[in-house]
Design brief:
This protein has helices at residues 19-31, 52-76, 79-90, 96-105, 110-150, 168-182, 196-199, 237-245, 286-301, 354-359, 376-384, 397-400; strands spanning 186-187, 193-194, 230-231, 250-259, 271-281, 307-314, 317-326, 343-352, 368-375. The protein folds into two domains: 11-150; 170-403, 2-Layer Sandwich (BirA Bifunctional Protein, domain 2). It is rod-shaped and about 140 Å long. It has twelve helices and nine strands. The two termini are 78 Å apart. Helix 2 packs antiparallel against helix 3 (79-90) and helix 6 crosses helix 11 (376-384). The strands form two sheets. It has a seven-stranded mixed sheet with strand order 1-4-5-9-8-7-6, sandwiched between helices. Strands 2-3 form a two-stranded antiparallel ribbon. It binds 3,4-dihydroxyphenylalanine. 3,4-dihydroxyphenylalanine (DAH) binds at residues 234, 236, 276, 314, 317, 348-350, 371-373.
């Protein structure tokens, strides 16, 4: 027997189209069918087909009809038509093959049974072969469409995941730390909220001293009677805190944030970064100080750079100096950056004022040392010729990328 298989969803064996709709479609299809398919509604007797030849001729007509419809269906290539088409031909209850079995084969006279059976089987085999071919083609089309969709195009560019990089200020911190660690210094950190004592008094800046003027800063609201607190204006308080805790020899650097009540512009910000330095021992001379400063500047800005010390004033150093370097942009010849002087100011420094030792119970007669305070933004600006301090804090990747 022929079978309509499981691969083709036939309506009358449980398809997805609502049954009433399905019946309508098939009925419409069958009633509008031109000759010869109407012939399957009648018996051979009614059709007056009494010989083998007449029977075969009827099957030829049916097969031709099938082939024509199949060709049309193939051209239209519509999934709904496909369903109707196969239901029309293979439907279990009212498909063409079923009708032929019911109307032609079963009631046929015994002498025609054999030819009807043969012709019917051959027609079924033909229809079945076409159906198999059509199923395979549909599956293949679906597969190649899917594989086209899922195909990995290895020639497409990959997803670029942006790599982060260290901020230029962080790079300067690390570079300076590297230099001083190589000289035997240790790195210490201190609080950003300080008492006036550590920020000023113990650094030899008494209450009404004019040196406080340019260090105006932010004071915290404190409960009445409580010791006032402020945001540190420099990293120098850590000189005091370290010497309070530690006996000489002391060799430290202190990287960190500091705050001042300054309006932001190209050279100022209300927060910036410093690295404090302090060396105290029994035999530290001005030569050690000068040698250390020169070594640091050459390591940081390059071996050709020369330094000079200019007298200056800080309450906690005596003598105090400003450390200048030959301009890195014009090699000392004079340019816009150094205002034609050939020199640029790097940082403040000096020999520790003996008065400071008094605040930490160090013996000023036996000890000596030096200190320095590096502005990290300024040193970075000089190293890379950055004209605006605000660029550090705007997080513009076009700026930051240059330091990646
Ligand atoms: N604390 C000073 C400031 O913020 C910088 C400074 C100058 C620090 C000289 C020092 C020093 O240790 O010796 O302006």
């Amino acid at each position: 027997m022929w079978g309509h298989g499981n691969a083709v969803p036939l309506h009358d064996c449980g398809c997805t189209i609502q049954r009433s709709v399905h019946v309508q479609i098939v009925t419409h299809f069958l009633t509008t069918m031109p000759e010869p398919l109407q012939k399957i509604e009648r018996t051979l007797q009614q059709l007056e087909a009494g010989t083998n030849e007449q029977v075969s001729a009827l099957f030829v007509e049916v097969r031709k009809k099938f082939n024509d419809q199949e060709a049309l269906r193939r051209k239209e290539n519509n999934p709904t038509n496909l369903l109707v088409f196969w239901t029309t031909w293979l439907g279990r209850k009212s498909g063409v093959l079923t009708k032929i079995t019911e109307n032609w084969l079963k009631p046929s006279p015994p002498d025609l049974k054999r030819i009807v059976g043969q012709e019917l089987n051959s027609l079924k085999a033909h229809i079945e072969a076409v159906r198999l071919e059509q199923t395979a083609a549909t599956e293949m089309a679906a597969e190649s469409a899917a594989s086209l969709r899922e195909r990995e195009d290895l020639s497409l560019p990959g997803v670029a995941r942006p790599l982060g990089s260290r901020h230029p200020l962080r790079q300067t911190f690390e570079e300076i730390e590297r230099i001083f660690l190589s000289l035997g210094y240790s790195v210490v950190a201190g609080p950003e909220m300080e008492t006036p004592y550590y920020n000023f008094e113990a650094l030899n800046i008494p209450e009404h001293h004019p040196a406080r003027d340019n260090m105006d800063t932010f004071y915290m609201a404190a409960p009445s009677g409580a010791a006032p607190l402020l945001l540190r204006t420099h990293t120098s308080p850590m000189q005091i805190r370290t010497m309070e805790k530690q006996q000489p020899p002391v060799r430290i650097i202190v990287p960190g944030k500091v705050y001042r009540r300054d309006n932001p512009d190209a050279t100022h910000g209300f927060m910036f970064h410093q690295i404090e330095g302090l060396a105290v021992d029994t035999d530290i001379t001005f030569c050690d100080f000068r040698g250390t400063v020169e070594y640091f500047v050459r390591e940081f800005l390059g071996p050709k750079v020369k330094t000079r010390l200019r007298p200056s004033y800080f309450p906690f150093t005596e003598p105090s100096v400003e450390v200048d370097a030959t301009c890195v942009f014009c090699a000392g010849k004079g340019c816009n950056v150094c205002k034609q002087s050939g020199w640029i100011e790097l940082f403040g420094a000096g020999m520790v004022d003996p008065a400071v030792y008094g605040f930490v119970n160090y013996d000023a007669k036996k000890l000596s040392g030096f200190a320095f305070g590096l502005g990290v933004e300024r040193l970075t600006q000089l190293k890379y010729n950055i004209n605006d301090l605000q660029l550090y804090f705007q997080n513009d990747v076009r700026f930051l990328r240059q330091f990646a």
